[in-house]
Design a protein that fits this description.
Layout: H1 2-11, E1 16-20, H2 21-26, H3 36-55, E2 59-63, H4 69-79, E3 85-88, H5 91-97, H6 102-107, E4 129-132, H7 138-151, H8 158-168
Parallel strand pairs: 1-2, 3-4
Helix pairs in contact: 3-4, 7-8
């Protein structure tokens, strides 16, 4: 979904940067583990990078798991222009979609502190955007995302309409 959003922003020539949680874990946050403290620091660093991008007029798309409400709230306060997108999906569907086999390993006890299996995920109380990825297609989800971002005036209003026309072509 984040890649599709980034591709759309590229198509309409809006400056953006996709910050992928896995890539950031290997670079900027390579020194962190998966304790609550380290996860909170991971979110803080991503939020800090996002703010730097936003301050320069670049839309930061963050595709990362932020399992704790307090860390998400702190990120929101740091960034200012922040949209919390909750991508809801049942564990069984996540297991089916898992190309890396991480959920199977976590369920077998081979991976400790795995979010949603052996480590908690605190669902957002009131996300800015709710996506049910189990019942919506990626295109429907991205369309909803673009519409909401347009409604919030984070994207030009024509952006969501352009995307809908592209899908129907």
């Amino acid at each position: 979904m984040a890649k599709a959003l980034a591709a759309h922003l590229e198509d309409v020539s809006l400056p953006h940067k996709l910050l992928d949680g896995d890539e950031i874990r290997h670079g900027l946050c390579g020194d962190l583990g998966f304790s609550k403290r380290d996860r909170d620091e991971n979110v803080r660093r991503i939020a800090s990078a996002s703010k730097l991008l936003n301050d320069r007029g670049v839309i930061a798309i963050v595709a990362a798991i932020a399992p704790y409400r307090a860390a998400r709230l702190a990120a929101r306060e740091m960034c200012g222009r922040f949209v919390e997108v909750f991508v809801d999906c049942p564990l069984q569907t996540l297991i089916q979609r898992d190309t890396k086999g991480l959920y199977q390993r976590a369920l077998a006890g081979e991976l400790e502190q795995f979010t949603g299996v052996s480590d908690p995920y605190e669902r957002p109380d009131a996300p800015d955007i709710y996506i049910n990825s189990d019942s919506e297609t990626e295109e429907e989800s991205v369309g909803m995302l673009l519409t909401r971002l347009s409604d919030l005036r984070y994207l030009p209003a024509a952006s969501a309409e352009w995307f809908r026309k592209k899908l129907s072509a």
